[in-house]
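Justification of computing resources. Each target in the renewal requires a structure prediction run like the one illustrated here; the chain below, 325 residues long, is used simply to show the kind of job we budget for.
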Amino acid sequence: MSVTFADIEAAAARIKGHAVETPLVESPALNDRLGGRVLMKLETLQRIGAFKFRGAYNRLVQLTPDERTRGVVAFSSGNHAQGVALAAKLLGMPALIVMPADAPAMKVANTRGYGAEIKLYDRLKESREAIAAEIASSRGAVVVPAFDDPHIIAGQGTVGLEMVSQAKAVGAAFDIVLTPASGGGLMAGVSEAIRTLSPKTAFWGVEPAAFDDLALSLAAGERVTIHPTGRSLCDALESPAPGVINFPMLKKNLAGAVGITDPEVAEAMRYAFSTLKLVVEPGGIVGLAALLTGKVEAKGKTVGIVLSGGNVDPELFARVIRGEI
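Resulting structure tokens:
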């Protein structure tokens, strides 16, 4: 099952008035440094502080009255959790979120604050999928995946629709667009929207260097599952493989994928804070890191990047700003 441009347009109509049309901004300082024109899509200003609300609302608003009564179950380390929790609250349905015990405290607190019930698990010893499936079965609830779902993908694709329209309004057309790469919901949806409206645009995914499942999958021409032994500063981008629905779209639409290290992510966060006056979480800033490191060349080009979220733990952010990471 693929997601079409028409699906993304339909999602845009459903979320209109509920999701924020976030701004597309540029910085003369950043343009001067890179020698190009960089337009940043600030999904940090989306409801719940990340793009995930778009897909969650598009999925939940289509549930039947009976399904809404029984509620939803999701599993997430943070932003999808918050997106589902808020969408469920707005639509008047119960939600339970399965979250790792080591998830950022702010994301756990925010998810609970939106009214969701939370089930914590040990990510090293337990399967979040199995826990969610068991709870959903016992309650008759609907499982809402973080990325491997056509309605989720279509909702995230609305970011791309807005980017092209907003760029056109300021006389720009994208040569390159970058998004963070995890399971691929954002990438699949945005790339489908961008490539439909602007076929000549080159689309790149950016992932943690230690979680290079996208690059490996693109090289192999099929989904590759990795088995990482450590963690990434980008806690939101630790998926071991692209989604089943997402990968054919990524294979069709992407020019490639680049990997970013933790120190490069931290440096980009410091630059965003000190020069751009933006607070961006590690997983949300990898596109900027790819440009600042030259792993994707911006000189002489118009580049769009999605700063996908701003939900960074205050203590972690302070350590990054102080240069301790």
